[in-house]
Specification:
Helices cover 79% and strands 6% of the residues. By secondary structure, it is mainly α. It folds into 2 domains: 4-55; 61-158. A 3-stranded antiparallel β-sheet has the order 1-3-2.
Length: 158
Amino acid sequence: MPKWISIDEAVHKYEVKEEDVCLWAETEAITASFTETTLIIDEESLQKFLCWHEALPTKKYIQTLEQLCMNQAEICKLSLEVIELQKRDLQHQQRTIALLEKRQAMATEQNRLNQQVITMVSDTLSKNEDGWMERLWRRIRVTEPAQNILKSKHKKKR
């Protein structure tokens, strides 16, 4: 059964760097696990790893480190590409928003002008109707022959 120790214990007991222990755990050169928030190391796997690598780092270990570095570089490259694409998308969205705001301002202005035209036409129509009716009524009332005609038509109907 494995005996689990913390990274701090491994660093002090085996006089290794914390970064190295984390790297070994990440490359699965030693057995490691996470508790809720802490990385723990299988002490036996750490001892075997240290004995095995005591003389010199093996070619496989160096290749593993190189591969890890290349993978990290590729991840950084992809992250930069994603950031650039997000930046372009954001710029496109900002241009779209600016255009939509201009269209909204134009539509608001058009609506305001339409309301003015409606008001003006309505005022003009009401003035014209009143004026036309008043003029006609004045003509009818003022002319005496028209009054006589109206009276005679009234009498004929009776």
